[in-house]
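User: tokens in, sequence out, please.
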């Protein structure tokens, strides 16, 4: 049994219709009771903790996002396994259609428990080890699942068949363009040096002057403050604005003129933070577990250390985007939070500047940086889609609502 999709790829988004056929192929007869095709979405988390003595504890979190089922064939009937195919068609809803009870005893404020929340993107972060005795993983999966149930009244039957095809669900943003909103971070730097004296900017320092420079209280000092404007929001695969500003502190300085401050090195980093929630995999399913981990990567960098003659001076307002190509990689996932998985980001800029032939380091970070999807979806189109949502074909019986399912005793998604 196989699933064939009519579109050339498996990338989907809210409102997209995905269609295809389910086919039987082979050279033997098969007794068929029912053949179905389902569109399902799930959030899965798992943490394994090693306890020593070759024992371990496993925590799991399973949260459904949606499930739609179409019955393609009803038997019982005996049929050839070749030459039979059935068409299907599904439309992705804009929001979750949750089914099943909430397995967690306690809820952490990080996660979104709204049963009709927007569908999160396809996501995978697996086999992450931390603290030497923990291993965590999490997934957001969307799949087409075709199932064949054989004739249960016959002793000799080929049995049940099942095949799956994974879909890549991509979220969209509802803001087409927006004015950048910044958070400002600052760091004060004091440069003590004899080179700040007029006529000594580039000249050699004598041994006597080097001894004098040990006592900074006797040296000229230039005090300046670096300001970094960090964006609060970014868009995948789009340019990221970063503004560096320089402010001289005249009152705290003893120099007669402002020294030249040049940019030596700059690194822009993005830290991806993943949070998950699980529950002990036992009969009574007690003992919630929350875990988190982070991955850091560079998205842009520039270094003039090997050729300081090309190092640009830091001005009152310096657009770093003009010096280096700053973009968030398109393959990252936008910020999202669902029943048991959350993805957030931290934006950091590490730089070093030179003043009076001395190097100073500075770091600026925004701990709440929201990353939006690359594609834009019109809010009007989303409203129309929500009004027309219930066109998914034969659901073979209405699925229980999230609230009704929560009341079902012992139900686990």
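Assistant: Sequence out:
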């Amino acid at each position: 049994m196989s699933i064939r999709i009519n579109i050339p790829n498996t990338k989907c988004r809210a409102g997209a219709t995905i269609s295809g056929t389910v086919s039987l192929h082979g050279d033997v007869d098969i007794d068929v009771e029912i053949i179905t095709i389902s569109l399902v979405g799930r959030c899965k988390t798992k943490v394994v903790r090693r306890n020593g003595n070759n024992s371990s504890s496993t925590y799991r979190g399973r949260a459904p996002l949606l499930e739609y089922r179409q019955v393609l064939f009803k038997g019982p009937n005996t049929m050839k396994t070749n030459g039979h195919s059935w068409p299907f068609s599904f439309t992705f809803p804009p929001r979750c259609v949750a089914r099943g009870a909430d397995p967690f005893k306690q809820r952490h404020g990080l996660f979104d428990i709204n049963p009709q929340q927007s569908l999160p993107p396809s996501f995978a972060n697996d086999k992450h080890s931390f603290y030497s005795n923990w291993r965590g993983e999490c997934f957001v999966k969307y799949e087409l699942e075709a199932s064949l149930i054989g004739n249960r009244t016959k002793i000799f039957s080929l049995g049940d068949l099942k095949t799956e095809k994974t879909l890549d669900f991509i979220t969209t943003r509802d803001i087409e363009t927006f004015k950048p909103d910044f958070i400002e971070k600052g760091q004060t730097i004091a440069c003590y040096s004899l080179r700040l004296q007029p006529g000594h900017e580039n000249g050699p320092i004598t041994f006597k002057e080097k001894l004098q420079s040990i006592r900074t209280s006797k040296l000229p000092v230039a005090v300046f403050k670096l300001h970094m404007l960090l964006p609060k929001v970014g868009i995948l695969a789009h340019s990221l604005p970063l503004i560096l500003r320089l402010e001289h502190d005249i009152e705290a300085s003893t120099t007669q003129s402002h020294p030249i401050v040049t940019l030596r090195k700059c690194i822009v980093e993005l830290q991806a933070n993943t949070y998950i929630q699980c529950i002990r995999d036992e009969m009574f399913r007690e003992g919630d577990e929350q875990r988190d981990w982070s991955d850091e990567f560079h998205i842009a960098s520039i270094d003039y250390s090997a050729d300081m003659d090309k190092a640009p001076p830091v001005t009152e307002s310096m657009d770093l985007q003009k010096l280096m190509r700053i973009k968030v990689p398109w393959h990252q996932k936008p910020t999202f939070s669902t029943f048991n998985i959350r993805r957030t980001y931290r934006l950091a800029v590490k730089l070093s500047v030179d003043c009076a032939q001395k190097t100073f380091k500075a770091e600026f970070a925004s701990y709440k940086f929201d990353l939006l999807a690359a594609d834009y979806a019109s809010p009007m189109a989303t409203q129309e889609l929500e009004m027309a949502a219930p066109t998914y074909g034969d659901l073979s019986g209405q699925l229980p609502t999230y609230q009704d399912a929560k009341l079902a005793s012992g139900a686990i998604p």
